[in-house]
Amino acid sequence: NTEVSEFQNANSMCTNTEVSEFQNANSMCTNTEVSEFQNANSMCTNTEVSEFQNANSMCTNTEVSEFQNANSMCTNTEVSEFQNANSMCTNTEVSEFQNANSMCTNTEVSEFQKKQER
């Protein structure tokens, strides 16, 4: 709960423009990508976190750019809050998030890609 709260605080401290950029990044994703993103926030399983990262890599350049802009437009405090959300995780959670791609099995990647194709 603390981790999710810190993440939400990072968003609420953004200006309207920053929030808008962040929301645009979500709205340009497919339903599957938005769903996977929400799963990542709720600190779900390794598979879900891995799929979240895959969703970004499968986005168009514009979508990835919008998402990155949302972070870069935050103040130092806001970025710090976002980083704190990760650092307040247990060692296991941080490790799982950082290693999400390498921990994703071929089956998981394949299943996510099939969802996208549908």
Structure, described:
20% of the residues are buried. Helix 3 crosses helix 4. Helix content is 81%, strand content 0%. It has one domain. It starts with a helix and ends with a helix. By secondary structure, it is an all-alpha fold. Mean pLDDT is 47; it is low at 13-20, 26-34, 39-50 and 56-106. The protein is globular and about 40 Å long. The chain contains nine helices and no strands.
Domain count: the total is 1
Structural classification:
mainly alpha
Radius of gyration: 14 Å
Helix content: over 70%
End-to-end Cα distance, whole Å, is: 33 Å
Query: Mean pLDDT, rounded to whole units?
Result: 47
Strand content: under 5%
| Individual helix count | 9
- Kindly state the number of beta strands: 0
What order do the SSEs take from the amino end to the carboxyl end, as H and E?
HHHHHHHHH
For the sheet with most strands, the description reads: none
What's the shape? Answer: globular
Write the layout of secondary structure elements.
Layout lengths: L1 H11 L3 H12 L3 H11 L4 H13 L2 H12 L3 H12 L3 H8 L1 H4 L2 H12 L1
Helix pairs in contact: 1-6, 2-5, 3-4
Entry keywords:
single chain, 118 residues, 9 helices, globular
Short description:
This protein is mostly helical and 118 residues long. The chain is 81% helix and 0% strand. The termini are far apart.
